[in-house]
Specification:
alpha+beta, Alpha-D-Glucose-1,6-Bisphosphate, Chain A, domain 4, 7 strands, globular
Length: 150
């Protein structure tokens, strides 16, 4: 599997960050490419729960995230599946000098492969995922900065 990761530090507590991260009603404001959360199944964000969401027309289509691990105030790992990839995405929250560091990592594999897939991945897919994760985490930081009560 290929991997991309982004880390950012924000002026917030771990509790504030994780409360906002797991609030699926706000995802459309900061998750890159997400147009609508279609369903939340189970006791989100706990293990075994699932979120299904849909991207805009130029995005990933229907995406399913199924929780495989969750530890309060530490982070969560989900299996991710869409039309093009399957993978595992992890988010972690760590206190750093009175702030919170958010690390988002996506390990993925491309479903339909050919002999040029490694080159296409290197030149186009991996940079696109890295940009998308960076956008998501940066916009998430903007959400944290809005002063909403948690």
């Amino acid at each position: 599997m290929r991997s991309v990761s982004v880390a950012r530090t924000f002026h917030a507590s771990v509790h504030e960050a994780e409360t906002r991260w797991y609030d699926t009603s706000r995802w459309a404001h900061w998750v890159d490419g997400l147009e609508q959360v279609v369903a939340v199944e189970g006791d989100w964000p706990s293990g075994g729960s699932r979120v299904r969401w849909r991207s805009g027309p130029a995005g990933r289509g229907s995406v399913t995230e199924t929780v495989v691990a969750y530890e309060p105030r530490i982070g969560q790992t989900v299996d991710v599946d869409d039309d093009s990839i399957r993978g595992r995405q992890s988010v972690s929250f760590a206190p750093v000098d009175g702030e919170v560091e958010v690390v988002l990592t996506l390990e993925y594999e491309i479903k339909q492969r050919s002999f040029i897939t490694p080159l296409v991945d290197l030149l186009f897919i991996r940079p696109a995922f890295a940009s998308s994760l960076a956008s998501t985490v940066s916009r998430f930081g903007g959400e944290l900065g809005q002063g909403t009560t948690f």
